[in-house]
Structures are given as structure tokens and as C-alpha cells.
Task: structure prediction
Amino acid sequence: MPFLTSITPFHSEGARLRTSLDSLLAQDFGDVELLLVDDGADARTRAVAESYSDPRIRILRGANGGLSSARNRGIAAARGRYLCFLDADDSRPIWAFSAAARQARDEAPDLVICQGHLAEETGQLMPFYDRAVLDALEAHLQGRCARRGAPGFAMAQALCLLAEPQSANKLVRRDFLGTPPLGFPPGHVFEDLYFHALAVARAGRISLCPHPAFTYHRHVGGGQLTAARDLSRFDILAVARLLLTRFAALPEAGDPLCRTALMLALAKLLRWCEEMLSHPHRAQFRTGVLAVLALADPRFRRLARQTPVAFDQFSRHRDWLEALLCDPRLSTTREVSHDPIIRLPRLWPGRRA
Amino acid sequence: MVPGAKGAAPLIRSRKRPAFLSADIPHWQGGGLAETLPAMPPEDLVARRPDLLKLTSPGHESAILAAFGEAPPAFLLGEAWTDPPQSQLLPGTTSVYLPFAGTSWRLQDTAGGRRRGVDVVVAMYNSAATIAGCIGSVLDGSTADLRVLVVDDGSTDDSAKRVREDFGDHPQVRLLQKENGGCASARNWGRMQSDAEHLAFIDADDMVEPGFYPAVLELARYSGLPMAQGGFRPFRDTSNGPRHEATPEDLSHLPRRRFGTAEVFDIPWPEVVTGQPTIWRRVYRRDFLDARAIWFPEHIRAFDDQVFQLVTGYHAGLIPARDDVHYLYRQHAGQDIRQGDERAHYSLEMYRLVLRRAVLEGWSDFGPVVTSYFSTLAWSHAGLRDDLRGDFLHGAAELWTYMRRVWGPGIDSAARPELLPETFARHAAQMERQLAGLGDGYVFAWLDGPALHVDMLRADRQMREAAPI
Result:
């Protein structure tokens, strides 16, 4: 059983996949299994994947089911004690596995969260977006592993929830995922927050790897999902609904700090999606956000009044969220007839949709 | 009056086709009328080695083409009247314009650069007991342009050995092996390996009557439509051999017409969509599946055939069918869809996928899908374990609320909530109350719930059982 399984789905990344695979094969940590999940890839990308012949590499082939299903297939096929993910157009510095594994070896945490890099196409390297939050986490943990039940654990969870939900930024202990394993919501994009938040909420021990362990490459040329302006953005609504429903069943939902961190992280994503969306879809998107809030456990509408300094950079998102929570459409308690199927007024009488 | 027409044989009136040729006159099939007309023996035709042949010989079309054997004329014109020649008589080098008289059908090449013929994909997982019977029945009465692609989905028994032993050197059988990934992944895998113009999917424990797929392929070829369908008949294994049961569908209301020795009829898509999933008795145009991006969803481990049926059905629009040949559908106790566990929730996720697809693709009518949804719910609920029913109705009501919010209350006329317990309506009403301030809209096709995902549901149930609150 290898110590680590790294899962990389590929679809149409073409030559970029080479950057990613080369960085994985160059790691100074050998006890690793590299799972490449062929998610209905195009011929060019598949040729890149198949051009490698390394005993560490295993290719799983399937039809295009989306990134989430592909990662889930990777999770199901993984054999390592720990799992991590790397998208086919990102990369890792050579010390990534050894640095993260060092954190994992000592106390066998369920989750190791890692710092990361952001790389521009020009080659410029910068700290990843969540540097400040993870710095606060580092200061909070003082090099120790946070344990459930010990003081300060909720604070550690809250800071992790505020971190960017990047799939590459963590090592997850495989057994901790359970059976059936916690995975990504199939059929949806913007899936990272779902996995990230539920893993953080369920973890019993959390460590931080202070060394940057992944490099997210920004591509100006487009093609990345993060540049999408279309209805794929609506998937964040499904992800939010799934996440809030499942999170509500966990004790963390009762903790004001964790709950607030989750809502702020979610607000940031929702707001980003709304602002990226093409204008004709925005009114519907707003309806969708309100629907998610209306259907969610009412506790999620109550944010903590006092929050630590690290939360301050989310103040814009908090303002946005609080404005939404005051939307009159949310508080409407119009009396609805008991049986909606029969007695609601027909808006379009006689018309079959 | 038509010469030879007897009794009250109904005439099917058609503007294009002379009435006397539309009459149901069985003895024509043997060439009775044609023999009374002056005719040239096929051998004389062949001896003249024509470059161009114009067929106008009711009752003799197939015989004439068969006489040409491997070297038919370069150009084939005319029309088929009573006896449409099998398309496999024609190699790809012949240019054909041969309409089936009185219809818009004609023998045509839909290959689009692919191999002419049909690949029958068998998804095989631990099917050692039935696989030989399955493959044998497909080959029985088949034509050379049919191939069987057996996809071994990581079987742990000796299924693959059985295939190799029985069909190892058969030119029409190919065995493909892959890691286990579920039935949907095996079917997709077979499709990805296929180079044929048409595809069919058979289950490894089923069989077909001799010549089933070639007969349905003819229909697909002549009509040129996205998919064509044959009949089916359930059967059970008994100690005295298979016991066939009556086909549980009634299509007698659809008008029929002659197609050679067969009767054919067209099924409108709502009937396909609201019917039982029977994807295996159909032959699909590969370019249709590709163009519409219709795949089996691989993470759905049961009911993946239903999403396929709904989407192919809608997009095909009109489905030509014949029921003189049958797919034999084995009934047995171990059928996974009948086990009554959480897998019933796969059907919820599946309908959600269809809902989103329908919105994105602008489906003109979602009513038939709703009708199908409610019959599936009723059927699944009836077979479900008692302790799972609450979650199931919850998820079902959630998705129904989304459907209703997307299409507006006008969709209610297609719904059948009376098939379900009152809990369903209560859950739906509760959700409607929560959403009372919000209008309808397509955005609801993007909402979701953990009860629509089997893995999430299982995990949540485990958590609830581990720590009862």
C-alpha cells in the first residue's frame, strides 16, 4: 500500500497535462501512486497521458462524466493511506509530497491543509489567494496538530473553512473518508467547496503544511472553468444546497464561528459566480441563491456578531450576504394551501409545459 | 377493385402509393402477381452485367439482388414495392436510390464514414452462466455486418474464459476487457471501441430471437431515423426450459403498414418516454448518439438505462418499430433494480439530470417525463424497504418541487401524485411553503439535494445510525 495516492483527472488539457505529470514524477518522495483518470479525454490529451511509462502511473479510463465523477472514480480506485488531487493543468513544486507527508507521518491527521502558489502565464509566482487566512491558521496552530475536543479546534476548523477550497491544497487520510467515501458531488462543477468544507467539518485532527505544495496556473487564454460566464455557474447553487443540507447534520453547524466561516466562504463563491455570470441569467441566479437560503436550516441565517480578525477580509462578502438575508422574498410567509399540487392557482391554465 | 384482394382486407390509403399495392394481399409475397406478368429471369439480368439497374419488380427485389451476389451493379435505381431487399446485399461501392414505394423510406447509406453494420455491445459482469446463450442468440440468423462486442467489466468468475472458449475464433465476436466500473461504463467502453454506423446494447443474461438485430437494423437503415425498435418478450427459467410470458405493452392503437414480410408502425416519443425502459431492443445510429452527446452516466449504478431511454426517446421524436421479432428479457429474482435498497435513489438523480438537460436543450414538452417520473416513483416505492421509504419520498418531493418550479404549475396535469402516499404531498407542500416568496424559473433545474445522491444518502444514514440525536 503506497503512502500517498495522487489523483489527476484529464479531459482536454492537451500539452498542459505534461507540466502537471512532470511535476508529479519529479517529486522527491517516492512512496506514491499516481492515478490518472481519463474523463472522456480528447485524443491529444490521451496521447500525452499514454506517452508516460512509469510504474507509479495508473490510468483509469471512462466516458466524460465531469470532474467530480472522475475524482470520485479516483477515490474509489485509490490504494494509498493518504489521497490528494491535482488538476491536469496545475503543478506541484518538487518538495510538495515530502513536505506534506512529513506533516501526515507524525500524528496521522485526517487532513493536512497546504499553502500554495499562484502562477501567472508570464512565470510570475505569487502566494495563493488564501495566504493570509492560512498564515492566521499557522499562528493559531503553532506547528501542532489540531485535535477535536482540544481548545481552539473550532477556531482551526473555522480558519480552514475560510481557506480557498482548492482541491490540490490538502492531503486526506483515505480511511477517514468513510464508506461510501466522502467525494465530490457528481454532475456539478464548482465542486471543491463541498468536499473541502465537509472534510474540514468531519476531521478529528487537522495539520497545516506551511510550505507551498501546489501551483495554480492562471491561463489568460481561457478554457478554464473559472472563466465561464454561462449556466455552468449555476452549479454552485446545487453545490451550496448539498453542502448546507449535509453540513446542518454535523455538530459544527451549531458552532457560530464554524457556521459563519462556512457561510462567508459560500458567500464569496456565490458572489463571485453571480458577478461572472452573463447578465440575462443574473435575476434567475439571485432567485436560486434565495431558494438555497430559504431551504437551508434557519441557523445558517444567523451569523456570529463577533468574529476574529482573520474574518475581516470577508467583510464585503458578509455585507452581500446580510443584504440577501434581508430580502423581503425570503421572509415572506404567505399562506400556501395544504396541497400545492391541486390548489395552487394555475398561472398558465390549460397549458402543458 | 384490386385484383386478388379478398374479403374485407383493409386498404391503407396513401396519396403516394397506389391503393392496389397497399392492400394486404399475402400471396403477393410469394410473387403470385408478378409471375403473371412478363418477366426476365434474374440470371439473364446478371449475365448482361449492367452498370445500372432499375428495379420495378414487386415480390422479386431481394431475389434479383441476391442473384448478383458479390458484384451488384454500380448504380441501383427504382423502388422496392413488397419485398425491400436487405441492405446487407449491397456492398458500399454501389450507389443506391431505392425508395420503399409509397413511403419516405429508402435504402440508404447512413454510415457517415463508419463501418456499415451494427455492433451489439454486451456488458458482461460475472455472467458465465448466461453469456454463451446470449452471444449465440445474437449470432443466430445474423448477417456478416453484425458484430458482437463483449465488454468484460472486470468479471471475477470465468465469464471471459467461456467467451474465449466458445467464440474465441469467431470473426463476428470481439472480447474487450476492462477494470470494473459498472454496467454504464461497460456500455460506453464498447461504444468507444466500436467503428460501426449503428449500435445496440444487450444485457448479458438476455437473448434474442434469431435474426433480431438484423431485422431492426433494416428498419433503421430504411427509415434513416435515429433509432428503431423491435418487440420484446419476458421469460423465466423453469426446470422445463424457458417459459415465455406475454409482452407487457399494447401498441395495437398505432396504425401499421407493410414493410416486406413485416408490419411496421411509428411510435411517438411520449409513448417511449412513459414506457418501461427497454433500451436493449433498439438499434441506434452512432452519429445520433454522438451529435446529441448521449452517454450512459457512469456514476449511476442502476437506472442508467432510463436516462438513456428518456433522452434518446425525446430526441428521436418518432421511432419506427416492428414486433415480428423479439428480444427475450430474462426475469429473475436477483435483478438489482428489484432489491429495494438505496439504489432507488439513483432514479431521482437520473431524473434531475434529465430535468437540467431538458432546460438546456429547450425541450418542447416535459409532461411525458413527469408522467414517467411518477410511475417510476410508484414502482420504486412499492419495492422499497420500509425504513428507506421516508428518505425516498423526501427526495422525490424535493425533485418534484424543482420540476414544478421550472415548468410552472401547468405541468401538474402530467403528474400522478395519487400513486404515492400522502407523505409525498406533505413534503412537497412544506417545500412550497419555504419557497413561497420566490417565483418560478429555470434556475430550479440547478438545485439539488442529498437525497438525490445515493452515496450521500448512504453516508448520512450511517451517520444518523451511529449517533442518534
User: Anything to note?
Assistant: The CA atoms of residues 40 and 57 of chain B lie 10 Å apart. Residues 1-36 of chain B have pLDDT under 50 and may be disordered. The longest strand of chain B covers residues 318-331.
